[in-house]
């Protein structure tokens, strides 16, 4: 999630793994662009679903140039 500028909708996050990256829709947890290994895509999608409310709240903060709250990372 990028901070400090109005980003395009729908609310989304950017996931990076090694030299690969993908974009995931926060509301659905689905990948909308890019490529990660299949097991990592499933892990990111599951994490988004678990933290959907927190991610949407952070999206609103980031869109207003405010710092988002920390969310427990993938482990």
Question: How would you describe this structure in keywords?
Answer:
alpha+beta, 3-stranded antiparallel beta sheet, 3 strands, 21% strand, globular
Give a short summary of the structure:
With 75 residues, the protein is an alpha+beta fold.
Unreliably modeled segments: none
- Provide the β-strand percentage band: 15-25%
In what order do the strands lie side by side in the largest sheet? 1-2-3
Give the overall silhouette.
Answer: globular
Give the number of helices: 2
Distance between the termini: 19 Å
SS elements, strand count: 3
Average pLDDT value? Answer: 90
What structural class is derived from the secondary structure elements?
A: alpha+beta
What is the rounded Rg?
12 Å
What percentage of residues falls in helices of 4 or more residues?
25-40%
In this structure, how is the largest beta sheet organized? 3 strands, antiparallel
This entry's quaternary arrangement is single chain
What is the succession of H and E elements?
A: EEEHH
């Amino acid at each position: 999630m990028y901070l400090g500028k109005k980003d395009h909708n729908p609310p989304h996050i950017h996931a990076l793994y090694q030299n690969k990256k993908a974009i995931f829709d926060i509301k659905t947890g689905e990948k909308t662009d890019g490529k990660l290994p299949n097991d990592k895509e499933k892990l990111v999608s599951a994490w988004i679903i678990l933290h959907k409310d927190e991610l949407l709240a952070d999206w609103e903060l980031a869109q207003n140039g405010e710092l988002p709250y920390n969310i427990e990372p993938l482990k």
